[in-house]
Design brief:
Strand content: 25-35%
Number of strands: 20
Oligomer: single chain
Number of helices: 14
Distance between the termini: 79 Å
Structural class: alpha/beta
Shape: globular
Low-confidence stretches: none
Bound molecules: cytidine-5'-triphosphate
């Protein structure tokens, strides 16, 4: 019996797929079809697959052409499958011509003609409502978001606003955005959703303005500098059926999400301590400007609070800060938090350098995330018996902003007010900590 194997995503199954499967089947007696998992697609950059893996498997099944369906979940699996199933022929469409020649060592490789004029990409864009995104504030993070937005097909950059019109014009030219303005009010009618990347103190008033005008908001950190303001924004969003998302990029990236699920599944036992650190010696002047709410806490505090709140919850019983203040802003802050069954701490600096890693300590072992832990592509679970240690690797694409933007867009398209990875109560608690710190509650200053 001649066995043939082929692989694909088979999203929104179309005639091109059916033709390919028919031709593949004709090459032998038995056809195995590998369907990619959602995670595997996500990791290889296909962020916008429409149907989930079960739906895609069912669609392939309904063609009646596959004798066996398997799932493809890791790089290198094709070789394993060919050996495991004693495959004679590997085949795929001609769009992959040459890419799988390395499999010739294991079986015959056949590139079949691709059906012209149809693809999942095309079907997705025809079916997809496009979200007109406006960018507010043209700083460096805004530029990175503009670049990353190319990977999120549901989003089109439609407008940009900066209080300096020349800066907004240049940004619009650089990123091919059709509309620019220096007026926040004028931007409103050009967009469906706003990415707020303006200076810290404007996050709350701008977010409120956009929400009140029926626009979805992706709000950069610090989300709001007061607990009541953060809660108010979520209340407005809920009342108006809008999506409001906190742009703590780490929360949305695959490695961090897996770190959380592994840890919550008891891999390292009960968590007893979390320690995070982040620092730079090269802050932009805005980050050190007291009049713009500069300082290490407002700049990076939300990042460090993320693993702490996600893993230990928001009900800490005590919080203390130690800071080195210069010109009215903290250039170094150490924060100590107490929970009934655990402790947490972080140190952040805009004028001090340290190792930017994350350690989550448990009763059975610990998780180590090397610097820069807030852009994780790799972490380790470590145990007393070092033979049980395991390393976990992921792709972290460039700035990682595509993940948060993709989740934000998904929430809008599928009408999910709460995103899947950063609960609103955690954002509100981060604002509570920011507020306490800005009032210097439980804060000791050092020279
Ligand atoms: N295929 C084909 N003709 C098409 C589209 C796909 O022969 N018009 C083949 C591909 O070459 C591959 C298989 O179908 O062997 C599964 O491809 P997949 O990547 O799932 O489909 P695409 O429509 O190409 O998806 P996308 O647009 O997301 O890349």
């Amino acid at each position: 019996m001649k066995k043939v194997i082929t692989y694909g995503t088979y999203d929104m199954l179309h005639q091109g797929h059916i033709n390919l499967l028919k031709r593949a089947k004709e090459l032998g007696d038995y056809l195995i079809v590998g369907v990619t998992t959602d995670t595997f697609d996500y990791e290889r950059g296909k962020l916008n697959v429409h149907d989930n893996v079960m739906e895609r498997i069912k669609a392939v099944e309904r063609t009646g052409l596959a004798d066996q369906i398997i799932i493809e979940e890791y790089v290198g699996q094709k070789i394993d499958d060919i050996q495991k199933y004693n495959v004679d022929i590997f085949t795929v469409g001609s769009d992959w011509e040459g890419k799988f020649d390395y499999l010739n060592e294991y079986c015959k490789v056949v590139y079949l003609p691709r059906t012209e004029g149809v693809s999942s990409t095309q079907l997705r864009s025809e079916n997809m409502q496009t979200i007109r995104l406006g960018i507010i504030g043209c700083g460096s993070i805004a530029g990175r978001m503009a670049k990353e937005s190319e990977f999120v097909h549901a989003v089109t950059l439609s407008g940009v606003m900066d209080t300096d019109l020349a800066v907004a014009r240049k940004f619009a030219e650089d990123y091919n955005i059709p509309y620019y303005t220096d007026s926040i009010d004028e931007l409103i009618s050009h967009i469906d959703a706003a990415y707020i990347a303006s200076p810290h103190l404007s996050h709350y008033p701008y977010a409120k303005l956009f929400l009140q005008n029926g626009k979805h908001v992706l709000n950069e950190l610090p989300f709001a500098l007061e607990e009541s303001k953060a809660a108010e924004l979520f209340n407005i969003a809920a009342a108006k059926g809008l999506v409001l998302t906190h742009a703590v990029k780490t929360a949305y990236c695959p490695a961090f999400r897996h770190l959380l699920t592994l840890t919550k599944s008891g891999l390292i036992g009960q968590i007893k301590d979390i320690e995070a650190a982040q620092s730079t010696l090269d802050p932009t002047p805005r980050k050190l400007d007291r009049n713009q709410a500069g300082g290490a806490m407002t700049e990076d505090g939300d990042f460090s609070l993320l693993p702490i709140f996600m893993l230990l919850g928001c009900n800490y019983t005590d919080i203390r800060f130690i800071s080195k203040i210069e010109n009215g802003v903290d250039i170094y802050t150490k924060c100590l938090m107490l929970y009934p069954n655990a402790t947490a701490s972080f140190k952040i600096g805009l004028g001090m350098k340290t190792e930017g890693d994350l350690v989550i300590s448990g009763t059975k072992g610990y998780i180590y995330v090397p610097a820069p832990w807030w852009k994780p592509s790799y972490f380790e679970a470590r145990f007393e018996d070092t033979s049980k240690n395991r390393k976990y690797f992921y792709s972290y694409s460039e700035d990682g902003l595509r993940y948060e933007l993709n989740e934000f867009a998904g929430c809008i398209l599928y009408k999910r007010q709460q995103n899947r990875y950063l609960p609103h109560n955690i954002t509100i608690s981060m604002s509570k900590v920011q507020e306490a710190y800005r009032k210097r509650v439980n804060c000791i200053e050092i020279d």
